Amino acid sequence: METTVSVIKADVGSVAGHVTPHQEQLELARNMLEEAKNEETIKSFYVTHCGDDVELIMTHHKGVDNPAIHGLAWDTFTEITEKVSDRLKLYASGQDLLKDAFSGNIKGMGPGVAEMEFTERKSDPIVVFMADKTEPGAWNLALYNIFANPFNTAGLVIDPRLHQGFSFTVLDIQEDKEVILRCPAEIYSLLALIGTPGRYVIKEVRRNDDNEIAASASTTRLSLIAGRYVGKDDPVLVVRAQSGLPAMGEILEAFSFPYIVAGWMRGSHHGPLIPVSERNARVTRFDGPPRVIALGFQVTQGELIGPVDLFDDPAFDYTRIKGMEIAEYVRRHGPFMPHRLGPEEMEYTTLPLVLDKLKDRFKSTS
Ligand code: F6R
Ligand code: MG
Ligand code: MG
């Protein structure tokens, strides 16, 4: 039997600004998913948060894009908004619920979705990455390192089962088109695209040998749905590990470098992506810095066994310190690029409203 892992997340309001959800929101989500488990809609679940986003990690046997699963997530976020966020006047209540009526698929409605379906191997370890204050393209560099860079992933060189490489599905979020690039042969073409993470986003990675699914990421761009600024998309990512796929340690290694992503304050600044433990998944300094948590599980007969809080380890202290040095350095640029995003990406922020006001004051110089 095939098992599906569905990770669906939304920011439906938070405490003390865009910092962290309220415990009551998480409890309500747990109660609703417990009920869905008893009714056998899902097989198991884990509820957590990263920054101000509520994260629903679920397993079931219904496949990807299933209306019952998407409907459950939608109802959960709606109930949280109505029963908790509104009542407690939490900040930006219901923020990511951009559409009114649910019609079978939650994609395109605001919440982020990463799903994959697979036949369980003898033993199936996975890791769920969840980020706050950044965009879906933030996974590009890590996914490249995990599945295409032999300097990160030793298995690409020394394990014959990885030796044929991996294929990347890259989405052009502006044109709503996608392309599959087979690596290592097409590494240069892949990099030509994904080096522009604001436009080209890796959606899925599969093993060349047998087309086995290896990674699946959320690709929602809230601003493109709403046509205005609604915070960054705070993406999620599911990666399978071991036995002919990158080892868990090779996957985590990609986050040992606090690379620069877009997001942070007002979704308008570049800053380092910092790996943190689940208990440190709150955003503070300048509404950030952008951060990522990693929870490891075994998927066993459709159930989640775990989690293991994988970044809760002194082995990532150096990355965190380095990340804060980078944060300190870029912050000193204040409103100047390249700390502030370039004009194209600022288009969906509130900056154009400010620039508009100045328009009529410009006089011709010729
Ligand atoms: C970024 C984010 C925050 C807000 C900022 C201003 O994704 O959510 O950085 O953009 O706190 O929020 P408002 O405009 O709601 O005061
Ligand atoms: Mg928020
Ligand atoms: Mg968020």
Q: Can you describe what's shown?
A:
The chain is of the alpha+beta class and 366 residues long. Helix content is 26%, strand content 27%. It is built from 10 helices and 15 strands. The protein has helices at residues 23-38, 67-85, 139-148, 155-158, 187-194, 222-226, 248-253, 317-331, 343-346, 351-358, and strands at 2-10, 44-50, 53-60, 112-119, 125-132, 166-172, 177-182, 200-207, 213-217, 236-240, 260-263, 269-272, 274-275, 291-300, 303-309. The strands form 3 sheets. Strands 5, 6, 7, 8, 9, 10, 13, 14 and 15 form a 9-stranded mixed β-sheet that branches. It has a 4-stranded antiparallel β-sheet with strand order 2-3-1-4, with helices on one face. α1 runs antiparallel to α2 (67-85). The mean pLDDT is 96. The chain binds fructose -6-phosphate and magnesium ion (2 copies).
Summarize the structure.
By secondary structure, this protein is an alpha+beta fold. The protein has ten helices and 15 strands. Strands 5, 6, 7, 8, 9, 10, 13, 14 and 15 form a nine-stranded mixed beta sheet that branches. It has a four-stranded antiparallel beta sheet with strand order 2-3-1-4, covered by helices on one side.
